[in-house]
Specification:
The complex is a heterodimer of chains A (534) and B (340). Chain A has 17 helices and 21 strands. Chain A is of the alpha+beta class and 534 residues long. In chain A, strands 8-9-10-1-11-19-12 form a seven-stranded mixed sheet. A six-stranded mixed sheet of chain A has the order 14-18-13-17-15-16, covered by helices on one side. A four-stranded antiparallel sheet of chain A has the order 4-5-7-6, with helices on one face. In chain A, helix 10 packs antiparallel against helix 12 and helix 16 runs antiparallel to helix 17. The longest helix of chain A has 18 residues. The N terminus of chain A is likely disordered. Chain B folds into two domains: 127 residues, no CATH class; 146 residues, MetI-like fold (Orthogonal Bundle), CATH 1.10.3720.10. The two termini of chain B are 35 Å apart. Classes of the chains: A alpha+beta (534), B mainly alpha (340). Chains A and B meet through strand 10, helix 8 and helix 14 of A and helix 2, helix 3, helix 5, helix 7 and helix 11 of B.
Chain lengths: 534, 340
């Protein structure tokens, strides 16, 4: 087919010509300089301060502007230095010394130093951040003997493994000189709306509801980076429209499953486009059945095991998840090295076994073939959780459990499951955040007050489980700590307080024009300093 | 000669007087309407499970108890519902619409930023629907019963039965993806430095597809109304008289039938304005237009009470104003109608 001459190709040609006359097309080892990366953004948070609100939606944009001390990487121990160049934990587990990168400048020209790190840790992460408030609760002080050294001192021993694993999500550094003596919690704070950072791109413009524009930071600390001149995030609310924009070439990239799975499969076959599930290894979701132990039937482990036996995860993976994902063997996904183990109790798809277990527990079938009825609340956040709910209803019917589906929107679901406990079963997508102590044990530890979402609101309390979790939380020896988490996984799969089913990644759709993409385990939240356009 | 301007002035004065009466009466009626709309929406959103903090925490992926409680206290959500309502109304009286919790900006500025886009979309849709509806309706009525009439009616039925969002996506696939004639989303080319007429043209091009998606359903309605109205008037005695006088068909259709058949259309116009605000939610999402329809949707799913009530308040004002204009127009078009 002859190349079509359209408005778009004309404009691109003109832009290309203008670009080539202004910018010398130097070819670096990583790729070519220049170009505009057009990205679809399907959400738009209230502000762009990833140091306060550590969420994927914020990081998607803010991680190009504001940088953490370290980020996730493929290979090695999974963590690569960013603003910190190295970290050394003390033997007693009560301090960690960070060496910081020198010669780094904020976008306003001021020098980055250990004072910024100390301020961010003490005033922002510890006091305001959604994860930091828990993780850094024992952080007593951050000492700054010189401009490139920051020593974190803790009131009691804390596993350095945990802190290091958490760095990518919790250690976004903000400029002290722009936040000091201001109310950083205000979404309208000028720095939250137009952040000044150290990252490869500067925050240029945000028109709410329309777009965010980032520009290349010419004085970025990594020489030769970034390669792209501009990143434009287009706010697009409709999944169908995003798919169409991929086909027309109006956008080159969409992340976090911004198009529906069937559309993504179709787009993957379009010439010039590809679908990626790589780059989400560090932010995998696990489709999980949450169980309310306040129901006497569900407090019985035999009933919970029967539910697991009634489910065919292979079928789920193929139909509900279109093959994108993997069958979960336990509470930690296979990418969760070094903690992950397969040495846990497994449950085959076996409805006869399920029925036998229910009979044994004393729940015989009634005249209508049903043993008891349950209220099932699938989380509305993902199409996968909604569809899992539909599947679950059918699977449970087969063993005589009548699960009635109740649909809610996001705030309604959060309120009913995590505050009011007005559910019997719920389907959740729970994220694994690189260390069991950040995202996972909170689902099993008893004593969480009502109203805290994505935590143990299940009425499940097991002293042995609590002891395991608490020991691991204060174990400073890496190998010992890993061993405790192996024991933890075994206990979870034996007791099944909640039931992990499928580990699934998000989907990205990306144009072949984009070079060096999806090359870290949480790539949509990475800095994109090495991305270029062909 | 001297009497004529006098009479005109008297007529104008009479009309202005009637308009003033109408205006006063309508404003008096508007107050309870706005109050009802605000209280109703406030209670509806309060009845929905979960609040804005639940939505915020869901988006953040979690938060501890003290944090959640602190947020609730900060926005006064820990107070009794009746107190919250009272506080809101007291502020609304002083035209203080408050802050959007989810977006952290003053509600008024958020609305004013987006209102022009929605108004632009609505005006172009109403204009397109009204214009094309009249043309097709007149054409169908003048050829009633003939194949052209059947074709127009069938087409109208098909368009009427097509959901706007689907039509929008199909238009995008055809005109933006396949043919690449028109831009597929947004209200203007983003991050461009266009000014003056270039910018106007750019916005106009962006408006073509959303306008068509939003308006086509109404084209069908206007067309049916116009056709029925025309046929009714065609059967009246004064038309037979006009025919007997030997007037041409065109003259009868355009000078005598059309003006008399257009009144129900004006009624529809006022009604359509209200429903278009609802239709724009879907179309603004499909075409990524930053308008108040989408803002309202985001406010509901985020339980952002201040934002939603602000939008409802502004929309109510807008609809009341438009209906007032329609009534005035009515009185002007047909002086027999009392502006009651």
């Amino acid at each position: 087919m002859a190349p079509r001459l359209t408005r778009r190709t004309l404009v691109q040609g003109a832009l290309g010509a203008a670009g080539s006359s202004l910018v010398p097309w130097r070819a670096y080892a990583q790729g070519k300089r220049g170009g505009v990366l057009m990205v679809a953004a399907d959400t738009e948070p209230a502000h762009w301060n990833g140091a306060i609100l550590a969420s994927n939606g914020v990081f998607f944009v803010s991680s190009k502007v504001l940088e953490p001390l370290a980020d996730q990487a493929f290979g090695g121990n999974g963590i690569k230095p960013v603003l910190a160049t190295s970290w050394t934990p003390a033997a007693d587990g009560r301090s960690i010394t960070f060496q910081l990168r020198s010669g780094v400048k904020w976008h306003d020209g001021k020098d980055f130093s250990s004072a910024d790190v100390a301020f961010s840790a003490m005033e922002i992460w510890k006091k305001l951040q959604n994860f930091g408030r828990v993780l850094f609760k024992d952080l007593e002080a951050v000492e700054t003997p010189n401009a490139t050294t920051a020593i974190f001192r803790f009131a009691k021993p804390i596993p350095s493994q945990l802190i290091v694993n958490a760095l990518p999500a919790v250690s976004t550094v903000v400029p002290k000189h722009l936040y000091e003596n201001t109310d950083a919690t205000q979404a309208a704070h000028p720095q939250n709306q137009k952040p000044v950072g150290t990252g490869p791109y500067t925050f240029a413009e945000h028109k709410r509801g329309e777009f965010v524009r980032l520009e290349r930071n010419p004085s970025y600390w990594a020489s030769g980076q970034p390669l792209v001149d501009r990143i434009l995030y287009r706010r697009m609310a409709d999944k169908g429209a995003i798919a169409a924009a991929h086909e027309s070439g109006d956008i080159l990239l969409s992340c976090f499953s911004a198009v529906s799975t069937p559309d993504a499969i179709r787009l993957g076959k379009v010439k010039g486009l590809q679908v990626s599930t790589k780059g989400y290894e560090g932010i995998l979701y696990t489709a999980t059945i949450e169980i309310n132990h306040r129901r006497k039937e569900l407090a019985d482990a035999r009933v919970r095991r029967a539910i697991r036996h009634a489910i065919d995860p292979k079928f789920m993976l193929e139909t509900v998840f279109n093959g994108f994902g993997a069958i979960a063997t336990g509470p930690i996904p296979a990418s969760g090295a070094p903690f992950y183990t397969t040495d846990v109790p497994q449950y085959a798809f076996d409805t006869a076994r399920a029925e036998a277990l229910l009979d044994e527990a004393g729940y015989k079938k009634g005249a209508d073939g049903m043993r008891f009825a349950l209220k099932l609340l699938p989380a509305p956040f993902f199409e996968q959780t909604r569809l899992t709910g539909d599947y679950l209803r059918q699977a449970l019917r087969r063993i005589g459990i009548d699960a009635q589906i109740e649909g809610n929107d996001a705030p309604g679901h959060i309120r009913k499951v995590y505050t009011e406990h007005a559910f019997d079963l719920a389907v959740a997508a729970l994220v694994y955040r690189n260390d069991p102590a950040i995202s996972t044990t909170v689902l099993y530890r008893s004593g969480t007050p009502a109203g805290v979402p994505f935590a143990n609101q299940y009425g499940y309390a097991d002293p042995e489980m609590d002891k395991l979790i608490d020991q691991a939380a204060s174990e400073v020896n890496d190998a010992e700590r890993t061993k405790l988490y192996v024991a933890f996984q075994k206990k979870v799969m034996n007791d099944l307080p909640i039931i992990p089913l499928i580990d699934f990644p998000f989907l990205s759709v990306v144009s072949d024009k984009v070079v060096n993409h999806h090359n870290t385990p949480r790539w949509p939240c990475a800095s994109w300093a090495d991305v270029s356009l062909a | 000669m001297s009497a004529s301007p006098d009479r005109d002035a008297r007529a104008a004065g009479f009309f202005a007087g009637r308009a003033a009466v109408l205006l006063r009466r309508r404003l008096a009626q508007a107050l309870p309407v706005i109050l009802l709309v605000l209280v109703g929406n406030f209670l509806l959103l309060k009845l929905a499970p979960g609040d804005v903090i639940d939505a915020y925490v869901a988006a953040a992926g979690g938060g501890d108890r003290a944090f959640v409680a602190q947020l609730r206290a900060e926005y006064g959500l820990d107070q009794p519902v009746i107190v919250q309502l009272g506080l809101y109304l007291w502020k609304a009286v002083r035209l203080d619409l408050g802050q959007s919790v989810l977006l952290g900006q003053p509600v008024l500025s958020l609305i004013l930023e987006r209102l022009p886009n929605t108004l632009m979309l609505m005006m172009s849709s109403i204009g397109f629907a009204f214009g094309l509806g009249v043309l097709l309706g007149v054409a169908a009525a003048r050829r009633a019963g003939r194949p052209e009439d059947t074709a127009i009616i069938t087409l109208g039925l098909i368009v009427y039965a097509t959901p706007g969002f689907w039509l929008g996506l199909m238009l995008i696939v055809i005109f933006s993806v396949r043919l690449a004639w028109l831009p597929l989303s947004g209200i203007e080319t983003i991050a461009s430095s266009l000014t003056g007429w270039e910018r106007v043209l750019d916005i106009a091009r962006h408006l073509v597809l959303p306008t068509a998606s939003l308006a086509l359903v109404y084209v069908a309605i206007y067309m049916r109304l116009m056709r029925a109205g025309m046929l009714e008037v065609f059967g009246l005695d004064f038309i037979r008289t006009a025919r007997a006088k030997g007037l041409s068909d065109d003259r009868i259709a355009y000078r005598h039938v059309l003006p008399n058949a257009i009144l129900p259309m004006v009624t529809m116009l006022g009604l359509q304005f209200g429903t278009l605000l609802g239709g724009s939610v879907v179309i603004e999402s499909v075409f990524s237009i930053p308008g108040i329809g989408r803002l309202a949707y985001e406010a509901v799913v985020g339980r952002d009470l201040n934002l939603l009530l602000g939008i409802v308040f502004m929309s109510a004002l807008l609809v009341i104003a438009v209906n007032l204009i329609v009534d005035l127009l009515y009185a002007h078009l047909d002086p027999r109608i009392e502006s009651a």
